[in-house]
Amino acid sequence: MKALCWHGTGDVRVDTVPDPEIRNPRDAIIKITASAICGSDLHLFNGFMPTMEAGDILGHEPMGEVVELGSGVSNLEVGHGVVVPFTVSCGSCLFCEKTLFSCCDTSNPNAEIARKAMGHSPAALLGYSHMLDGFPGGQAEYLRVPFADVGPLKIESGLLDEQVVLLSDIFPTGYMAAENCGIEKGDTVAVWGCGPVAQFAIQSAWMLGAGRVIAIDRVPERLRMAAEHGKAETINFDDDDVYEKLQEMTRGRGPDRCIDAVGCEAHSGGSLDGVMDKVKAAVMLTTDRAHVLRQAIMCCRKGGTISVPGAYVGAPDEIPMGAFMNKGLTMKSRQTHMQRYMKPLREKIEAGAIEPSFVITHKVKLADAPEAYKTFRDKKDGCIKVVLQP
Ligand SMILES: NC(=O)c1ccc[n+]([C@@H]2O[C@H](COP(=O)([O-])OP(=O)(O)OC[C@H]3O[C@@H](n4cnc5c(N)ncnc54)[C@H](O)[C@@H]3O)[C@@H](O)[C@H]2O)c1
Ligand SMILES: [Zn+2]
Ligand SMILES: [Zn+2]
Questions:
Q1: Are 216 and 198 in contact (CB under 8 A)?
Q2: Which of 112, 259, 308, 337 qualifies as a FRET site for 122, CA 20 to 30 Å off?
């Protein structure tokens, strides 16, 4: 089959690789019908994630049709349309039982590498480095889905691929980001980033009772989407000092809830901490550029909450822990506990409460994926979210 393979920083190619096979009774094979490119894939494309190997198949936002099932999967049938979550979870360990699916204790066969890096291994993720298992991803014609009796969500109500494919990651991720803020009715929520995850965090903040949403980025069409579709007030960090502007907009108090939907590759707008990050990252002294996390801690109102859906990979430095502690802030972060959110959010789509396809700007063939990665990375051609269709 054809699959999009990682070959090094800035180098992804469509290769011919062996078709996936059932290896475990709980596996399924799906024929991919749609598969999105994520901001998290850019961390791989840009070489920020350790333990990638040449030939790794990328992609963790897939959906498709079941074509083969292991003998242990009784809840699916060949022919079913399914969306596959990016977290691989067993469904029965201590963590899965608590619905902490992204902390699954058993799904990562390379848990020992992750344990050395993080103290404990989180769940395996599809197409996301060998530390997190090395399971081949779904930017391909076919995908082996491990624990297929736990992860995939059936799509039965005549919904189109473009309406549901983002249930594989970023709609649940944006929703979780807003939920993790603990929004109280009328709160002001500031969202760093106007990328796809942020767009869903904005939508979800309103659903969960925000009184105001302020979105921060510098890419004009992303700011426009946040303003027009997301009804957010916006700050362009190239034009304004974000701290000063947020204090001015909140009468000096700061936003009640802050969401870092940017993560480890934040641009710094030329600030000193950002310049230091860039220098350190260039000589491999840091893996993360944490400008947004620092800024959110400084901007947030006392007693407020910081929610971090943005991905970090290592040990970012210069985190203002003194401000965090003395202001009495709370921080919540995680890979999304996907299986907890997919069904209720599908119901919101079915009920017409949200139409997730608003964020998709590009639909391209798998063969054109290498070009699409560059367009998405460089934010060319108004690109906000790419869906690949084999
Ligand atoms: N927690 C999870 O389970 C999970 C799931 C999906 C994605 N993610 C992570 O969420 C983050 C966002 O994903 P995405 O797909 O929206 O990515 P994206 O790269 O498309 O968007 C990031 C946006 O942040 C903006 N940005 C950069 N520096 C900024 C700054 N200083 N201030 C404000 N905005 C800034 C960029 O211009 C861009 O629009 C990534 O780190 C991704 O890895 C996490
Ligand atoms: Zn993703
Ligand atoms: Zn588990």
A1: no
A2: 259
Locus of tokens 């360990």: 93
Q: pLDDT by residue (tens digit) across 65-114?
A: 999 999 999 999 999 999 999 999 999 999 999 999 999 999 999 999 99
How far apart CA 198 and CA 271 sit, in angstroms, is: 23
Single-letter amino acid, residue 237: F
266 CA to centre of own chain = 15
Estimate to the nearest angstrom the gap between the alpha carbon of 128 and the chain centroid. Answer: 12
User: Exposed, middle or buried, 273 (CB in 10 Å: 0-12/13-18/19+)?
Assistant: middle
Residues less than 5 Å from ion ligand 2, measured at CB: 38, 40, 169
Which token pair is 272?
Answer: 């000193």
C-alpha 139/C-alpha 314 separation (Å) is 26
360 has which bridge partners?
A: none
Question: 37 C-alpha vs ligand 2 centroid, how far in Å?
Answer: 7
Q: Is 237 in the pocket of ligand 1 (CB under 6 A)?
A: yes
Q: Identify which of 353, 311, 356 has the alpha carbon closest to the alpha carbon of residue 200.
A: 356
